[in-house]
Amino acid sequence: MKIARRPSSHCALREGFTLVELLVVISIIVLLLTMTAITVNFSRDSERVVGAALQVQSFLSGARDRAIHAKEPRGVRFFLDSNNFRAITAMAYIDPAEYWSGGDAKGVAIRLERPDLNGDNVADSASVTIVAGNTQNQWWQLKRRGLLFDGLRIRIPKGPTGTWYTISTQLIDLTNPPPEAQYLVLQTPYVDPGISSPRTVDAFNGAGPTDYELELPPRILPMDPVRLPLNTIIDLDGSKVPQAWRPLSAAGGSSSGNFEYSQFMDVVFSPKGSIVGGAAAGGVIQFYICDQQDSIALKEQFVLNDISYLTPNPTLPPGAPASLKFSSNGLDLPTAKVMLFNQFVTGTRFIPTLAIRSSSATWLPDYPDTNPYLVRDRRIVTLFTQTGAVSSHPVFMSDFDFDGIENDPMYFAETGRSGQ
Fold it and tell me: Is the sign of the CA dihedral 369, 373, 374, 377 positive or negative?
């Protein structure tokens, strides 16, 4: 008879792990997951901005290809974000603009005048900046229908011999019935200073050009606007865009009260592939694309804390609000400082450097020197208006005066070099 032998203790089978071993393994897994999530999030943040830049570049190139293929003008309209009043978040393709002209029974459509802001029949400026018309031109009706707005162009006189001017519609009041006399404002003075005295309102004493044509806005093609990737924007304060798109237009030396960017920002390509219309005036358009979190908060701190060195303080237009916002949920900012900020970004670009330390950038008080504000990825999309070529480059980092703002951010875009 065989006797069963009990297995020795060292041969006994293990039935599981101890609690300590489980805790160690779980801790290691959590640590690895955390490190992976941080790496993936950083990569996704960078890829979102790069993807947004490629989307803008592709959309502009697509409009150019459509214009060349159809042998008709085609373009892109950029839409302001509904919450950020100084940023673009969507685009759509557009058809070419139509033209409008009018006049009375004698064929007299317009009269060129000097500004008379006080209504005393004495010109307040020698510059010819007022286009006077009547109800036959239907400018009041066009504005009410949304077909006439700031930033459109008028050609005086009508036809190929005329010159294009960007207009403001601030003198057309839709809160009252259409008056017999209606006025458009030229954002740059008429090329001919007139034949009358500089103090006379009528610049040509009843003579001068009498016909014109208005370039009405293009028609949006039947498709949904394309939105940029989540939390990415075209920051207009860091971009180089046509003057007609920017805030703070002027009329006769006084501010118009236009504190926000235009609601109609159109880039139109000709059948030859070049840019035509008002967007072609600057020679080059540069879109600054960034993460939305780096946009509003930094501007608010800059305006509230360091805008005072920009002098002199502007004179507010009649009826201007006491404060403004950069976004729907932003801080209330003094209107005068916002106007100064508009002037600041017209001559330079509000593009923050990669790491901002409050020891040098005093306008960023909430971030101590030992913990700088780290800016996310940024890109520049450049559109050359003479050729229609589009390119994308990183921002050139060169904050040599340590004020928190890049000094030459468009260097790569302008020279064609690539960042290392």
Answer: negative
The model's pLDDT over 274-285, given as tens digits with 9 standing for 90+, comes to 998 878 888 899
The strand pairing partners of 79, in sequence order, are 90
Rounded Cα distance between 128 and 357, Å, is: 48
- Nearest CA among 218, 128, 122, 137 for reference residue 172: 137
Q: Which residues pair with 374 in a beta bridge?
A: 355
Give dist(CA 88, CA 229) in Å, integer.
12
For tokens 């059948």, name the residue. 271
Instruction: Tell me the pLDDT tens digit for each residue of 122-169.
Output: 999 999 999 999 988 899 999 998 889 888 889 999 988 999 998 999
Q: What is the pLDDT of residue 251?
A: 34
How far apart, in Å, are the Cα atoms of 263 and each of 33, 104, 119, 236? 45, 31, 30, 12
Give the pLDDT confidence of 387-401 residue by residue, as tens digits: 999 999 999 999 988
> How far, CA to CA in Å, does 7 sit from each of 12, 13, 16?
7, 10, 19
Contacts (Cβ under 8 Å, ≥6 apart) of 75? 63, 67, 93, 94, 95, 96, 218, 266, 267, 268, 269
Hey, what amino acid is at 17?
F
More confident residue, 13 or 59: 59
The secondary structure of residue 405, as a DSSP letter, is: B
In sequence order, the 6+-apart residues with CB closer than 8 A to the CB of 67 are 73, 74, 75, 269, 270, 271, 273
Tell me how far apart the alpha carbons of residues 294 and 290 are, in angstroms, rounded to a whole number. 7
Dihedral sign from CA coordinates of 94, 58, 281, 377:
positive
- The Cα-based distances of 302 to 75, 191, 252, 368, 375 in angstroms read 35, 39, 30, 16, 15
Contact by Cβ (8 Å): 403, 311:
no
Secondary structure (DSSP) of 268-292: EE-TTS-EESGGGTTSEEEEEEEEG
Cα–Cα dist 115/184, whole Å: 11
Give me 420's structure tokens.
């290392």
Best CA proximity match to 396, nearest among 334, 360, 353: 353
Neighbour count for residue 258 (Cβ, 10 Å): 19
